């Protein structure tokens, strides 16, 4: 039996960071991976999806050029070359990850799928058995596929499969109004694929503010067919086609597609681990309670990190959780509580959708005394110059202190606005301090200043908000 101080299950982003953190405390550790090396982000997530989106943005820019009085030829989209670049660059990113893996001591790397045979005992499918004093679980997540899609057979795919296409298909039905569904549906549509996006329950990405959610649905719906709460009666397979029957505007409709892309959520990858043998108390999902500041499960020697922890399934959060889990597994039993960064989420649609800090729903559910500042980008100066003048930003501030609490937005170049706000929230900044920061002219960020001024008025700090034309000329 192999004995180690720390065993890390999963060599994705969280697992690799956990390894580096634990390595500072002990040389008796092992990193176990049952699948291919290369993080989810690099192989099938954030990087290949952004490569596809970049191609879609290039095509969209050509179609938008006549609005500036420039008339290029209509874009000719070569699907094989689009997907070829996606795969080449994807493989390059995966290569960087594999190089990092190769830098790890080979005696610390084990291939195989692990499961618990006791609180400290792991058995790999290779037959190897290991005793680990502490264990970090960083197995990631897997797609959730409703039984409703079973009739589609092998015409059903998930986002992982898209990046293996040698060419762009003619038509795809996308199910799921979350970040993955929104990004891929819009990108494919802009690359000439006939797409219809079916949501459920009215959700649009991570948004919880009703006004911002409605604005986002309108912005996406102006670009491609999108129903955030679709009434779908049936999906089935006919030959090589997927048939979707649904209701639109009170009328029955039927459309045929080459593929059904399911972007209906992801769940922690716990199957096969046999967590019941770990000694942890599991809930109805088969998962234990995890402290997000220590990543420790129920005060035990077992830690979780990344998507499997079901906290915030984003790369930077996975890296943070890997660092916390690995550090605490390495120093166990002296566990330290770590502060977490301000939540920040970005959906790379056009316009961007983003959330920062506390959400509208969280503040409302907690009965937090807060006010909202807003800006509509329809007449924002730089947004109109760029013909990107659509979107809505709501920023939330605490009554009494003026402290910035969070924001939700669908906004042009919102990825940058979201970062500014995340830094401000994490710094504990109040609205008046934020307004004292420099704002250049003309920039999209002046829209943020408008929202902050509106928030200041609504918090009772100012008498009025200067008219929006202040962003188009001289003003304080």
Automatic annotation (TrEMBL):
Residues 346-451 form the Pyridine nucleotide-disulphide oxidoreductase dimerisation domain. Keywords: FAD, Flavoprotein, NAD, Nucleotide-binding. It comes from the Bacteria. Disulfide bonds join 41-46. InterPro entries: FAD/NAD-bd_sf (IPR036188), FAD/NAD-binding_dom (IPR023753), FAD/NAD-linked_Rdtase_dimer_sf (IPR016156), Mn/Fe_SOD_N_sf (IPR036324), Pyr_nuc-diS_OxRdtase (IPR001100), Pyr_nucl-diS_OxRdtase_dimer (IPR004099). SUPFAM superfamilies: FAD/NAD(P)-binding domain (SSF51905), FAD/NAD-linked reductases, dimerisation (C-terminal) domain (SSF55424). Pfam families: Pyr_redox_2 (PF07992), Pyr_redox_dim (PF02852). The active site is at 441 (proton acceptor). FAD binds at residues 50, 139-141, 307. Residues 5-322 form the FAD/NAD(P)-binding domain. NAD(+) binds at residues 176-183, 265. The keyword Nucleotide-binding applies. Binds 1 FAD per subunit. The keyword Nucleotide-binding applies. Its cofactor is FAD. Belongs to the class-I pyridine nucleotide-disulfide oxidoreductase family. This is Dihydrolipoyl dehydrogenase. The lineage of its organism: Bacteria, Pseudomonadati, Pseudomonadota, Gammaproteobacteria, Oceanospirillales.
């Amino acid at each position: 039996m192999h004995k180690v101080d720390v065993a890390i299950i999963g060599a994705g982003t969280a697992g690799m960071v956990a390894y580096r953190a634990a390595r500072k405390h002990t040389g008796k550790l092992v990193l176990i991976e049952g699948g291919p090396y290369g993080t989810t982000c690099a192989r099938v997530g954030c990087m290949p999806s952004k490569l596809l989106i970049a191609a879609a943005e290039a095509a969209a820019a050509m179609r938008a050029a006549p609005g500036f009085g420039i008339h290029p030829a209509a874009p000719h989209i070569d699907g094989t070359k689009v997907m070829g670049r996606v795969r080449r660059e994807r493989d390059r990113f995966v290569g960087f990850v594999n190089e990092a893996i190769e830098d790890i001591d080979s005696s610390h790397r084990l291939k195989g799928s692990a499961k618990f045979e006791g609180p400290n005992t792991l058995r790999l499918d290779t037959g190897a058995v290991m005793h680990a004093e502490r264990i970090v679980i960083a197995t990631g997540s897997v797609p959730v596929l409703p039984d409703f899609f079973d009739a589609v057979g092998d015409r059903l795919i998930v986002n992982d499969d898209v990046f293996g296409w040698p060419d762009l298909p003619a038509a795809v039905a996308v199910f799921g109004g979350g970040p993955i569904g929104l990004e891929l549906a819009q990108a494919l549509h802009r690359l000439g694929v006939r797409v219809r996006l079916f949501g459920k329950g009215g959700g649009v990405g991570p948004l919880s503010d009703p006004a911002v959610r409605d604005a986002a649905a309108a912005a996406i719906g102006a670009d491609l067919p999108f129903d955030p709460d679709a009434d779908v009666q049936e999906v089935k397979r006919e030959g090589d086609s997927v048939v979707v029957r649904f209701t639109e505007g009170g009328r029955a409709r039927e459309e045929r597609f080459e593929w059904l892309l399911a972007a209906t959520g992801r769940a922690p990858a716990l199957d096969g681990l046999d967590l019941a043998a770990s000694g942890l108390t599991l809930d109805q999902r088969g998962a234990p309670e995890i402290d997000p500041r220590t990543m420790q499960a129920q005060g035990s020697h077992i830690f979780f990190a990344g998507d499997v922890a079901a906290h915030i399934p984003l790369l930077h959060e996975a890296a943070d959780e890997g660092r916390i889990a690995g550090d605490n597994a390495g120093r166990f039993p002296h566990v330290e509580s770590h502060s977490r960064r301000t939540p920040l989420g970005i959906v790379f649609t056009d316009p961007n959708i983003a959330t920062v800090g506390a959400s509208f729903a969280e503040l409302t559910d907690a009965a937090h005394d807060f006010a909202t500042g807003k800006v509509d980008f329809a007449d924002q100066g730089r947004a109109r110059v760029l013909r990107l003048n659509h979107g809505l930003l709501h920023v939330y501030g605490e009554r009494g202190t003026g402290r910035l609490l969070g924001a939700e937005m669908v906004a042009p170049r919102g990825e940058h606005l979201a970062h500014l706000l995340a830094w401000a929230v994490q710094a504990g900044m109040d609205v008046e301090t934020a307004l004292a920061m420099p704002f250049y002219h003309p920039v999209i960020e002046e829209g943020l200043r408008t929202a902050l001024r509106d928030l200041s008025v609504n918090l009772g700090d100012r008498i009025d908000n200067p008219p929006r034309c202040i962003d188009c000329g001289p003003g304080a």
